Amino acid sequence: MAHKKGGGSSKNGRDSNPKYLGVKAFGGQVVPAGSIIVRQRGTAIKPGKLVGVGRDHTIFATADGTVKFRTGKDSRKFVDIIPA
User: Fold this and answer.
1) Which residue, 55, 56, 61, is CA-closest to 41?
2) Is residue 35 part of a domain?
3) Distance in Å from the first CA to the final CA of the chain
4) d(CA 44, CA 41)
5) Which of 2, 40, 63, 84 lies at a C-alpha separation of 20 to 30 Å from 53?
């Protein structure tokens, strides 16, 4: 007879690493060119004026200026940079 019971196994106990998504620069904030404005999965927020989109749908500023979020027609969200 075994003097210890067999260690149980569990199918749970895993978790994924945090991805730190979300808005990184809020409306009215002044940002330099190249700074990340939104990290997202998919294009929930679309790029507007003076804004670029990365391979992973990250939205970033292409020029220095102030961040401005707006809602376009058909209630889509956009982010623009207003140059300083």
Assistant:
1) 56
2) yes
3) 79
4) 8
5) 84
